[in-house]
Design brief:
globular; alpha/beta; two-stranded antiparallel sheet; 10 helices; Rossmann fold; single chain; 288 residues; 10 strands
Length: 288
């Protein structure tokens, strides 16, 4: 499905009921927007483990402008600022006063920016393996130099410099780096998951060579007023857990959970614990 907003067309998909019959009455559940990573990824990765959350919330999968199944748009419009304002336009498109948000990796950066800019429009915030500023990149460079193989160190240079030239190069990067992204890495699952997604390497280039080098929400985190769950993988190399600790320290109503056996892909590495944490948080936050 598509929403025509702000001069573009955003793809979204919906899973689960908003109003659920319980003991003879309709009970409202949270409307949880799922924001994918990248830049230049898509929502497909959410349709494995996180999809099970449809028993707790109505899930709204979103592809950022120019990403995934969203329509082609002006590459100059592929910015963090536009991703934030597109989300608010989508909220308005659905006629919702407030939304809950789960943002993973880059999607968490969009979610942070949204909660800072529109604090009264966020009911609950879930931040998964993300960072509040450009500083994550220097930490990630250092970690891959320490932990990575020579091939991994070399392929990461395309990421840092924003110089991917094809989807084949992007796949090579993710194939080589997959054991760093997930402690549960499985080559067969990697191929299966790759075939599900639609990726935009130009968006990734523009992010890592551009706005991801300068964005910084650190001093604005205290403006976020909603209940917030911050989730980090203890072995995450690209968004190391110290960045999640900082987020949780600065947001007044934040709870931090670090997954001891996970890297960046928490939902894949510890799926049961991931689902339990999100379900518990949403249940508690709705009861407040």
């Amino acid at each position: 499905m598509y929403a025509k907003i702000r001069g573009t067309e955003i793809f979204y998909d919906i899973d689960g009921m908003r109003l659920v019959p319980v003991n003879g009455e309709l009970v409202e559940r949270p409307c949880l927007f799922l924001l994918h990573g990248g830049p230049g990824g898509d929502h497909a990765g959410f349709k494995t483990t996180p999809a099970a959350l449809s028993d707790t919330a109505q899930l709204v999968y979103v592809d950022h402008r120019g990403s995934g199944r969203s329509r082609d748009s002006d590459p100059d419009s592929w910015t963090l600022e536009n991703n934030i304002d597109d989300l608010d336009a989508l909220r308005e498109h659905f006629g919702l006063e407030r939304i809950s948000i789960l943002g993973s990796s880059y999607g968490g950066m969009v979610a942070l920016g949204y909660a800072i800019r529109y604090p009264d429009r966020v009911a609950n915030l879930i931040l998964v393996a993300t960072a509040p500023s450009f500083r994550f990149m220097e930490d990630a460079k250092r970690i891959v130099e320490e932990r990575g193989t020579p091939e991994q160190i070399e392929v990461c240079r395309r990421l840092w410099d924003g110089t991917f030239e094809s989807l084949d190069q992007l796949k090579e990067y993710y194939r080589l780096m997959a054991p760093q992204y997930a402690t549960s890495f499985d080559p067969e699952k990697f191929e299966e998951n790759w075939s599900l997604g639609i990726r935009n390497f130009d968006q990734l280039n523009r992010g890592f060579a551009g706005f991801l080098r300068t964005f910084d929400y650190t001093e604005q985190l205290s403006a976020i007023t909603c209940p917030t769950l911050v989730m980090a993988g203890a072995h995450d190399w690209i968004c190391p857990p110290n960045h999640s600790r900082l987020i949780a320290e600065r947001i007044p109503r934040a709870h931090l959970k670090i997954f001891a056996h996970s890297s960046h892909s928490i939902a894949a590495d510890e799926p049961d614990a991931f689902l339990a944490a999100v379900r518990g948080f949403l249940t508690y936050a709705e009861a407040e």
